[in-house]
Amino acid sequence: MAAPAPGRGMDHDLAPTGPGWLVALETSGLGESLRQSVWLYPLVEITHILGFALLVGAILAFDLRLIGVRAPLLPADALARLLLPVSMAGFALAIPTGLLLFTTEATALAGNPAFLAKLALIGLALLNILAFHRLAGRRMADWSLSDRPPPGARFAGAASLALWVGVLACGRLIAYL
């Protein structure tokens, strides 16, 4: 017998309870397959972690430039052109695999404070990215070689660092809450 998906523990034989759509998702063939497979759940989880590593790693490298770390050596606009595709590839891996992982224990996750905080922080981080690209990032060519980016860019970088580290921390805490 395969080990249950993390978080199900001893209750994996009990029927899930909660809102109908969550129960339906969790008891779907997909949710059952992921929970029962020896290899499928770990493969999806590893792919999710890889996606987040690419996403957050690229973002953190750019954020460090925004707050002024190694500024003279790295033009911000060139770094953005290099790292944006990496972060987008990571996002493209992390989101669908995260949704797959959600199906394995949708009813429990829907009430998990760490999971809910993770989703809220992802939303805030995405809003921060949008604000950066619409404001300070729009004029990046003007300050790209500057040792000290403008205050709006520095704020966006610092906020992004904090938000994405929070996302990682909350993601890790899901198993413990």
Describe the structure.
The protein has 177 residues and is mainly α. It has eight helices and no strands.
Number of helices: 8
Number of strands: 0
Low-confidence stretches: none
Q: What would you call the quaternary organization?
A: single chain
Structural class: mainly alpha
Strand fraction: under 5%
**What's the structural domain tally?**
1
Shape: elongated
- What's the average pLDDT? 90
**Biggest sheet statistics:** none
Strand and helix map with partners:
Blueprint: H1 20-26, H2 29-36, H3 40-66, H4 76-104, H5 106-109, H6 113-134, H7 140-143, H8 151-173
Helix pairs in contact: 2-4, 3-4, 3-8, 6-8
Summarize the structure.
The protein is an all-alpha fold.
Descriptive keywords:
0% strand, single chain, 8 helices, mainly alpha, 177 residues
